[in-house]
Amino acid sequence: MNKDKLIETVARLVSPPKGILAIDESLSTCNKRFEKLGVPTTEEKRREYRELLITAPEMEKYISGYILFDETIRQSAKDGKSFTSILQAKGIDIGIKVDQGLIDFSSHPGEKITQGLEGLSSRLKEYKNMGATFAKWRVVYSIGENTPSGDCMKENAVILVKYALICQELDIVPIIEPEVLIDGDHTIEKCYEITAGNFDVLFSELRDSNVFISGIVLKTSMVLSGKDAEDKSSSAEKVAQMTLRCLKEHVPEHIGGIVFLSGGQGDEEAAMNLNTMHQMGSLPWPLSFSYGRAIQNPAFQSWAKSPADISGAQALLLAAAKNNSQASIGQYKK
């Protein structure tokens, strides 16, 4: 493990005013999005859309890294240039989603653990040879009457530790993503309780296993009430206050950086919540974004409607990236 190299990569990823763009949707998720807007669900159409995202001019002003999917990291633009070489020429770090999705957690109805450890080291070595400098692994928790259980949080934490150690041994920065889903009718206070408890379990496992905390990035959901909650408590001030309190009290100050997933929030909502956090005083760690749909949405809808208007869609993509870049330093205005 080269700790200096890990620290350097983390610093690039969370250097203000930049964040990370996630374009790592699985084939099934990507195809569902295409189907909703009448786009053919072919590999060529997926490649065409991702070329739009990767070749958009000036994205390097606002985006430090792209998280790719296995299919995407192997693809090229129409002119034959590999997607990875295009990103490298822009000075954008290449990330790769390496988990292989969710499976049922045995004897725990409604709970999931994440698979993909088998063969991970060899896959990461291949991705590293293709230019990847960081990776991502996602686990999810649903808030219900009896979920998430301590067993589920513990099992996923153990899996995340194994993933992180394999990454760091290869000098690849691991993004650790424990997502508390917005689905449900839970209160914002309940979300705080679950998120805080999960952080305690996760960072205890990371410390006990000697994961290099300064060489990881935490990708987390904000503290939010459930989308079906009667009292959504969704003012940006409330979300920002509770999210920052949770992070300050339960995440080590020496972590490399923290980025948010949008997690079902509206595009404007995700930007405003992040912006508000940066208007509440100094923070002990770099805090930015790692959004997917919250940046892609306008461009995707434009492209689906007018696939020949690439420049128009890219302009929308750049504007969304700029908005969130400004939010990451507290300078975003509606």
From TrEMBL:
Q: Which GO terms describe its molecular function?
A: fructose-bisphosphate aldolase activity
In which organism is this protein found? Answer: Candidatus Nomurabacteria bacterium GW2011_GWA2_41_25
- Fetch the Pfam families from UniProt: Glycolytic
Q: What is its EC number?
A: 4.1.2.13
Which EC class is the enzyme in? lyase
The GO biological-process annotations, alphabetized, read as: glycolytic process
Gene3D superfamilies xref list: Aldolase class I
What residue intervals traverse the membrane?
A: none
Name listed for the protein in its UniProt record: Probable fructose-bisphosphate aldolase class 1
Keywords for this protein: Glycolysis, Lyase
Give the PANTHER family listed for this entry: FRUCTOSE-BISPHOSPHATE ALDOLASE (PTHR11627)
**What family is this?**
Belongs to the class I fructose-bisphosphate aldolase family.
Q: Which reaction does it catalyse?
A: beta-D-fructose 1,6-bisphosphate = D-glyceraldehyde 3-phosphate + dihydroxyacetone phosphate
Domain of life, source organism: Bacteria
Pathway assigned to this chain's UniProt record:
Carbohydrate degradation; glycolysis; D-glyceraldehyde 3-phosphate and glycerone phosphate from D-glucose: step 4/4
